[in-house]
User: Fold these one by one.
Assistant:
Number 1:
Amino acid sequence: MSCAGGKKLFTPGPLCCSTEVKAAMMQDLGSRDKDFIDCVKEIRTSLLEIAKVSEDDYTAVPLQGSGSYCVEAVLQTTSPREGARVLVLANGAYGNRMVKMCKYAGIETRHETHAEDVPISVHEVKRLLEKDAAWTTVAIVHCETSSGVINPVEEVGLLVHRYCPGAVFFVDAMSSFGAVPLDLTAARIDYLVSSTNKCLEGVPGFSYAICRKQHLLSCKANCRVMSLDLVEQHLSLESNGQFRFTPPTHTFLAFRTAIREYRKEGGLQGRAARYCENQRLLLEGMGRLGYRRLVQPQHASYIITAFLYPTHPNFDFKIFYTKLAEKGKVIYPGKVTRADCFRVGNIGHLFPADMTELLHCVEEVMREMGLPVPLE
């Protein structure tokens, strides 16, 4: 099986979707139609079930826009107008983006940077929190998509709970939620954000925050931007099931179908098994062709893999990318500062046959570019 129509997207999102997910959008619903309100309710309940948290303790708050909108919404909503201090533990582009968001909002932030190709050090976090525990929010990325590194969220969460009991623990799980195990309760996570067009295999259009309800309600009037206020969004959805502003109705219909497909595949275990097999084939094949990965296996996710540029003088990434795209295979440029690399994702509606086909195209392109096969 493979995604229907168009190019194959070997990216971390947007990504390939099933024919059924796309077909679900062939229906027009008003934002106040009962059918649409029921759809939103089903999705919100399903997200809590996937997160394995109780409706008594958590709420799922969808928000129009990409994942970055929801990340910014959490940072704004959880930061008091006075006295906010946000600690961002960053080892890649998406942690760095959180810092930029805080600066735009005038929120005091400490940007704690770590090496991009290894997980954030639990020992260093412990040492930092022992010296300074006066944070209102501590933020971290679960799977840093710029490199593919998985960060030790549960261990960091316990440290935050121990040393900063009044702080919010916020996790960007954009490219991991639904496919990489993460125990929100054990990790003491207060807010987790992801997006429709990631491991749950929907289409772009909205993101969502899974919020500890009691804390969220204590954040009223914090947000500096009306459209990003998660408290007001939650209250509106709870009162009448409706959004404050026009929702992407077709995206919700597609996402409901995507979640139903997710359950049929076996939930997290089934989805993770397919992604792991996709990556196994990718790594074996790219290894045979002579490519080396940026991140060591013990630190890497099975969501996306960063490969170092070949050192051969004939290699030019723009040409490599363009030739693959002409063959219907879309990969991603690298997004780390310490090394020249490109990234290949294996999430979305992709299957082992798609990975085999990609590898065949990579070899073809290498020969067209005059690269040795395998690389020397």
Number 2:
Amino acid sequence: MDTASIVVGTCLMKCPQPEIEMREREGLLHHFEIVEGQERLKRPKCVIDRMVKEYKRPAAGQDVADPETLRPVPVLHQTIDYLYSIVTRPNSEWYHIYDYVFDRLRAVRQDIVIQDIQGLDAISLLEKIVRFYVLAVYRMGNKITPSFDPTINNQHTQECLKRLLSLYTEVDGPHSNQIEFESIYLMFNLGDTSALLHYLDLPTLIRNYHHLKLVYCASINYLLQNYVKCLRQIKKLTNVLCLCAAHRHLCKIQQSSLYIMSVAYGSKNCKYPTCSLEDLLCFNSQDEVENTLEKCGLPVKDGSVCFQKSLFKQEDKVSWKPWQQLENLLNRCNLTGILLGKSDRIPLPDISNLSFNDR
């Protein structure tokens, strides 16, 4: 883009004043922005400090590059920081939180594109945005609500992740959070050949870092359908967002594993203890194992399953279920700190003393 045509925002508020006045006048306030106690009013008043610019599709004849409606980088960071303080707000359903934060993050991304924000500024903003998308994959599951569609959320996640990884190669580093997001990208796209090829193009030291290498090995084993080994490697991960990305594949791994076992151990006289499956395939409880087996058409009796290929049936739609290992981590962590990159970080190895060819 021609530097002469680059627009720099001058709006120093999270929401431009004209939009605040218009949305208050037209009754278009979100319930997170309304003065407490006025939620049932037809035209409630807003709390100025809670107002955040909403996403709008560019309309014909509309000036989207008006500096007075665009927020500069520091204000965009302040906006995201405020949005993530809402994530832990008590007595708020997650689908309400997602509806609000997703829309306002989309407006942040729109401001980034219009101002052609590049370099380290773009990296720091996209890192924060990707963290929310990945967390939402787990928190929202496969529920489709008026505000959440898993396919759309995944599209936004992939788009931001790929742009972020591209910036890591374009902008001189080292980048302190690169290992974390390279790991998330591999785990989000578990078994995908293009993601695996991307890993092989990484600098040697980053590629050989133990955390990222573990994720790569898990992805390779998923591709080779060695699901048990894949799960063993995933269980060694402690990064919350990597596990959120892994969870989207968990039900498929479990069902595919049960099918393979139905073929390998298919016999009316062969019984396999369900308690062994609980740990082997990362189920939360023995009851969950038995419910899954029954949905797959496999008979369970006296704590054992009789695998038979002819009886196995794949579930058309696998219902979302929590993952206890991940729930335990989420209950102990500071969620806002994770989203802002202030906790649960994966450190970058020290490359200051390496020659260029070793990187």
Number 3:
Amino acid sequence: MREKMWIFYCGDDSKCIFPIWNHWCLYYAAVVCLLFTPVRTDDACPPSCICARDSGTVTCLDGEDTEVPRDIPEWTSTLILKGRNISTLQHGAFMTNGTELEMTTLSLSYNGIQSIEPYAFLGLPQLHLLDLSHNQLEFISSRAFHGLPELRSLYLNYSVLPSATAQLSNALSTQTLRNLHRLELAGNKLQFIPMLRLDIYNLHALVLINNSIESIGGENVTSLYHQRRIRVYLSSNPFRCNCELEAFYYWLKNSSQCPDSGRLLCSEPEAKRGIPVEKLRGEDVDCMNENLEAVSYVFLGIVLALIGVVFLMVLYLNRGGIKRWLNNIREACRDHMEVYHYRYEQDSDPRLANVAV
């Protein structure tokens, strides 16, 4: 009796014939492969991370990884990456297999991030809080924060290098951040408010402490008057207390929008160093007074110059008489000295004295 055969087609379209009894071996081999093959599940935790399913938190601390973990669980609501070597946030860095995450909190502080590419946070439509503090941002794409319509809080403290300040202004100007409530930019050596407009946001708090702001321009002051809900924190900035500070000074005096106004100190000029800005007098920052004072000094200089010119002209026109006058004085002095010299000789020689007697 002929033995039954199993016929399989091999990769080269040739027939591979096995006896029927071998099909049990193939069956068991397939089962073993399925059992030992790693399968991605929703509960899987990325390597070197700690996952807490109950709270929806994934924490990845320290490590040599240079990219964001690609296998972030879909149930993640809070992702904390800290102490990594992620130099660049690439396009769609937080998308898992092309799917969006329902993450609401993302902390990326202390990761040495230097560059944020366009649409880096794509796939996080529910994100409410983004912390990028204590990084080293040299490049920020103008579309870096696109795709974050629900973002409420953005922290960029001690992260933005001077080379990226202008880029930050463009990145923050996107309409995507229209629901932004809190923006923190402390410790970035900013010399101005890096926002082209304040009325495109729903800002309630703007933190600009410990920067290099010397004055707040009139346009920004006008915007602050219109956006009454905003609270601006400005302590530890080197304010230059001169005429340019006038608009900001009066806003500070007449508004309660700066909770730390008492800690705003003058840095220049030297005579006002250390004086609280709100303790200045109106004339200290009055542009009209400064202009009048400057004009007064100029006018005084012109008058003195004219007097000097007139005096020199008088001397020039009377140079002949002045010369004769000087010669007469010289002759008179010479005659006086000769008489004095003659009397001195008589007093010093007794014989001449007897002759005189």
Number 4:
Amino acid sequence: MASSGASIGHPRPCGCKGFRTCLVCEVEFGAVKPGTSLTEDSRSYVYCALCGKAWKGNNSDMWKEHPNHQGEPYDFPGVYIELDYIAAEEQLELIRNMDQLPWDPSQSGRRKQNYGPKCNFKKRKMKPGDFNGFPKFSEFIQERFRKTNILDGFMTVEQCSLEYTSERGASIDPHIDDCWVWGERVVTVNVIGDSMLTLSRYMGNHDRYNLADVVTYPRILSDDGLVVWRPLHADSSISCETPRKKDEEIKFERTEGNDNTVDEGCSDNMLPSDNGNSEESVEDISQDDSKNVCRSFTSYNFIGNDGANVSYPIVRVPMPARSLLVIYGAARYEWEHSVLREDITGRRVCLAYREFTPPFLKQGVKEKLGSEVLEKAANFW
């Protein structure tokens, strides 16, 4: 059996590399999985998919007790759940069609089918590659997005099928989806397998995940999920509500006392990485004439019944089969999200969707490249 150090440093046949592991490489190569279990944390809260409040506890089924919750609820904005978003018949048809296509090994025991442009978030480079749209059998989901209020103006540029199984010990480590290319709304359609999304407060550097770019973007959704800005579409009259004049200076606002944060997995492209120095600075991107006067996302502290500050709890968000999950705003940019191994009890398959940030849309500095990808994204084969 190979030593843990030797196996950790190199890619393995199971798809894992670096310090990410699955049960296969832990057994066959002696890799050691860092402790990531959060479910027994005394700071845990469970988000209720029915009332939209967070309740203290760590039982993943707590939300099903609605409306008979115990204790005092707390607001946790930036999470939207719609149960029974797809029908049981649609669920079975999706799985049947996905399983007719090849699954590629991914990290931490996952398998994937990825449809979207090739991205290097560290170097801030993107190219269409061989991307040529999405499988026809999934088109009805994107059509349904157009009838979902919170997804008004959402233009899919990446669709990723993800499979988690308990046999492989599948999971995904805490991360924030890249903020240079992927927009505010992080969308997941859970096809089969009930699971949980675990959110933990990010306290790291803004250079990671390209978070520093966020203050240059207009906010798409209000805290209560209302669309307050619609992106400019490459081939329509959809426009920003309050466009900035050409000679108007962009102003940035940050929450006082919140230097470490700025106001959700899909493919391996969105896994954590230390970006370091990038080829484009925030100042370069902010020169785009289509930008609005922006504001940062506020921080949210949880105050216990005894008045003690218990800021930054662990928030557990249910992901039932056939449901839609959207994270946005503070939940998207201030909290890392993960799927814990212990929350995969069988086979879970989901479809993850991403949209562009404003620089890749009409009148943005990356409009030409964005338009090329969006044209391909309109194709269903």
